[in-house]
Specification:
mainly alpha; single chain
């Protein structure tokens, strides 16, 4: 992808490369940690994101052929029915005309609903695929948040005594800052992968789901940055 087009759409390859680099950074700094395993899972998903987004957007040709055949049958049946109707030889009364008109309108509504269902079935199938993929990214965002949840910079001040209920907190100030930075980067990349799934699939419901994921990751990142601000403030006071 080159030229101006590179700035108009997300590049799955570059996103995957960025996530792979982040995974290696996390594994180097925190080997065998839970966060490293989450980064590995995010890396695995990113490698398949391009193929999965193409699968979501790809036309379902057999389904389109089936829908076209069914619509043709419906149209042919409607034409045959209309052509076979007997025309009245006498003047039709108003009451009879209203009854026939009401019955015709009901039939048209039912046929229209059937046609609408057939015409939108492909979009609903693709929407289901996209929502499943987006739901996976939402779950990973919550998992990342769980890993940073207990990483509170306040305990670096040594206030109070450890309850013993949590694992020993052995991170230095620098390590805690890197850990929180990695969590924030991972959350941002989760939103980018989710956006890939609707980049070539224009659907309001799927787009709304992606926006919800991005709002979620942005909100979680704000919490992390608040911790980082506290951490940097402590670092400034200790100098």
């Amino acid at each position: 992808m080159g030229g101006a087009a590179a700035y108009h759409s997300l590049d799955p390859e570059r996103i995957a490369a960025t996530i792979d680099l982040l995974r290696r950074r996390v594994e180097h700094r925190f080997p065998n940690s839970g966060l490293a395993r989450v980064a590995g899972e995010l890396d695995r998903i990113a490698e398949k994101a391009r193929e999965r987004s193409a699968w979501i957007a790809r036309p379902i040709l057999p389904l389109r052929a089936l829908v076209a055949a069914l619509l043709t049958l419906i149209a042919a049946g409607l034409l045959i029915t209309v052509a076979s109707l007997p025309w009245p030889s006498e003047r039709v009364h108003v009451v009879e005309f209203v009854q026939v008109l009401e019955s015709g309108i009901n039939d048209v509504v039912l046929i229209g609903a059937a046609c609408f269902f057939l015409l939108t079935i492909e979009t609903r199938i693709k929407r289901g695929r996209a929502l499943e993929a987006i739901r996976e990214m939402r779950s990973i965002a919550h998992v990342i948040d769980m890993h940073q949840l207990t990483k509170d910079p306040e305990w670096l001040l040594g206030r109070g005594q450890e309850s013993g209920l949590l694992p020993p907190r052995v991170m230095s100030r620098f390590e805690l800052g890197r850990y929180l930075d990695y969590c924030s980067e991972m959350l941002s990349l989760v939103g980018k992968v989710a956006a890939l799934y609707v980049q070539r699939f224009d659907d309001d419901v799927a787009l709304a789901a992606v926006n919800e994921v991005e709002q979620l990751t942005s909100g979680l990142s704000r919490t992390i940055w608040q911790k980082l601000m506290i951490l940097h403030a402590q670092e400034g006071q200790s100098r």
